[in-house]
Amino acid sequence: MAPRILSLALFIFNVIYFGIISPLLSTLIMFPIAWLKGEVKAPNRCSNYYHMHANALYFGVKVKVLAGELKTDERTLYLINHRTWADFFVHRLITDTTAAHLSRNLVGAVFPLIWLFSKLDDSIWFFNNNNVRNTDLFYKILDNHFKTTQLRSLIVYPEGARNRTNKPFGLRRGVIYYAFTRSIPSQIIITKGYENILNEFEFTSSFGQTVETFFGPTIRPSDFETREDFFDEVQKQFVATWNRVYETSWTVDEVEIDKNTASRFIKTKTAKTD
């Protein structure tokens, strides 16, 4: 009983650190000091960099690149699998803080200080589902953010949910369609191995975790005639990259439910390995 209580207490403190202490530390102390030293510059040394750094150092996060390299030479959508709350600093670490985050309003409600301080460099783009359903409005919101943000690219979780299984979810179409209409290349990035840094499902946390990262292919809309062709290739490469990281053998047909739906999910969590 005692170890469980201590584990829960550590989790609660680490959530407080992530959501309250680190935003205050990074924004009110680390960022001003860096600004005075002349270290602050776009696109990857803005205020969100110091929030990422405060968490990566505290939790002792390490990165192991399995293959590939990050594309940073132009505006890019980074399509990454979403595991836990820790993704909000882990994925900034692996993308060298060159990208903003696309996130639901609920996250801002849970972590109001992160929501507030993200306004400094427009590093988290909060949205609600009603906006997503209105394509014209959603695209306009994204266009406006790209005009105001200090960051070059955007981190997107195309599965649309935190997926802690070893089977990928079918991808949502909204932002992938947007990338096609705006001719923004998309890079697939799959990560694993760090779920216990801040595990809100099991109320546990840990230190010294290693993020195994596979920088997958970059898919360019200009190589495809229609948005459906582009989406299909993104889905195909997402599943293929997932299989390489998680050592599974899923096919696109197994993760696809209905091509006419905007949101496609896997119903089973059963693993399939070679």
Question: What structural keywords apply?
Answer:
274 residues; seven-stranded mixed β-sheet; two-stranded antiparallel sheet; 9 strands; disordered C terminus
Model description:
Helix content is 43%, strand content 16%. By secondary structure, it is α/β, with parallel strands linked by helices. The strands form 2 sheets. A 7-stranded mixed beta sheet has the order 1-9-6-2-5-3-4, with helices on both faces. A two-stranded antiparallel sheet has the order 7-8. A hairpin with a 4-residue loop joins strand 7 and strand 8. Helix 1 packs antiparallel against helix 2. The radius of gyration is 18 Å and the shape is globular. The C terminus is likely disordered.
Sequence of strands across the biggest β-sheet = 1-9-6-2-5-3-4
Please report the number of helical segments: 10
Q: Tell me the overall shape.
A: globular
Number of strands: 9
Radius of gyration over all CA atoms, rounded = 18 Å
Task: Return residue spans where pLDDT drops below 50 for at least 5 consecutive residues.
Answer: 257-274
**Class inferred from helices and paired strands:** alpha/beta
Question: What pattern of helices and strands is seen along the backbone?
Answer: HHEEHEHHEHHEHEEEEHH
